[in-house]
Amino acid sequence: MSGHVFSRATAAGPPRVSHARGVQMFDEEGRRYLDAAGGAIVVGVGHGRGEVVAAMAEQAGAVAYAHGSVFTSEVLETYALELAEVLPVDDPRVYPVSGGSEAVETALKMARAYHLARGEDRSVVIGRVGAYHGNSRGALDVSGRPSLRRPYEPWLGHARHTSTPYEYRCPFPDSHPVGCGARQAEALEELITSVGPGQVAAFIAEPVAGAALGACVPPDDYWPAVAEVCRRHGVLVIADEVMTGFGRTGAWFGSDHWGLRPDLLTAGKGASSGYWPLGLAVASGPVHEAISTAGFVHGFTHSHHQVGAATGLAVLRRLREERLVEASADRGAQLAAEIVRSLGAHPNVGDVRGRGLLVGVEFVADRESREPFDRSLRVTERVVAAARELGLLVYSSTGCADGSRGDLVLLGPPLVVTSEEVTEIVDLLTRAVTSVLPPP
Ligand code: PMP
């Protein structure tokens, strides 16, 4: 027989997962893994939540699929209503899709459709260097990671890229400790002006840079300055909250830390905690009004999915009732503090950063010069493998320094992680790091 899964696991013979509960996963051999990555920073409410599974089963039994161009439903409308109470978007209109990349594609099209509806032919979207927004073509184009873009470059090139607040390697180091927000905003404004007046449709960025740069928190003056530049030039702000949404950074959305009110917002991952492939593209009331008056031709077969909405609603209610956003802030502070205590003096640990339960640890060859390791040493991969050997799952990111060099691991356990589990995560991480990078 020749039927095989197109395997995404890099190691030969990946383990076969059998079940998972809370923060723990088990393979068919009975091995236990502490899931400090929430899969891919996805699982918020924890694995194996009966309440979520029951809501999904109930909805599937009532009606699983109804085409979005024909029907809405109680569950879809209730989900949108309850989301409106937590979304940082004015008068939000929610477009449910199947994942983060679809949400980004949808938001990009909404941005252009908005300007066209108002008689402006704006087509350029500005993203940021080092950013990750998904693997479909539009999302890849606004992403700024050379290693992912390189093979597909002939298909890309419509987007432009500006600098990213990455304080450990700040492109404007002379502006600190005050904060580089004003300089970043200036750089964005220069790019908008050089592209040409009335050409830029939107600026897309993660409020806290996640997968690509490893939990880079911008200085407090960044978002107010950048949002002001966008408003002044008629450029819509798209907050990509696929990773940072639904409590991950200790607030409902990353935007909340700075009072950012984006025109468009994308979510995924934590929206369903991984129980269903769910993404959300959210438009503000004014954006929605312009688009829907002109007619927005868009949709996917599985948009506005009934089971997806039931899953999202059940997850949202768990997050609220169990106060998991607050828990993320508390446990996240503990996680970062314990990592600093345990690994902060390690000669190859350059930076420990993050907000809430999104924490990045960047490894360097030299702490003084902040020189990254040569990528051929595969430090990240070896730390991830050593952690897995010890029964700890962490998320990896490489190429953080200049797109081709740099090593870091990202931690993002389910928000239900206990204080004892946080301590166990840090113990195992310390053992993994010191086994790969033994201190002198
Ligand atoms: N945007 C961000 C910020 C992400 O982190 C991701 C996934 N890592 C995506 C978009 C793409 O989401 P998906 O993989 O669900 O398509």
From TrEMBL:
Entry-linked PANTHER family: AMINOTRANSFERASE, AMINOTRANSFERASE CLASS-III
Keyword Transmembrane helix among record annotations: no
Keywords of the record: Pyridoxal phosphate
Pfam short name (any one): Aminotran_3
Protein name according to UniProt: Adenosylmethionine-8-amino-7-oxononanoate aminotransferase
Family statement drawn from the similarity comment of this UniProt entry: Belongs to the class-III pyridoxal-phosphate-dependent aminotransferase family.
Location of region: Disordered: 1-21
Listed GO MF terms: pyridoxal phosphate binding; transaminase activity
Source organism per UniProt: Ornithinicoccus hortensis
RNA-binding is among the record's keywords: no
SUPFAM superfamilies xrefs: PLP-dependent transferases (SSF53383)
Listed InterPro entries: Aminotrans_3, Aminotrans_3_PPA_site, PyrdxlP-dep_Trfase, PyrdxlP-dep_Trfase_major, PyrdxlP-dep_Trfase_small
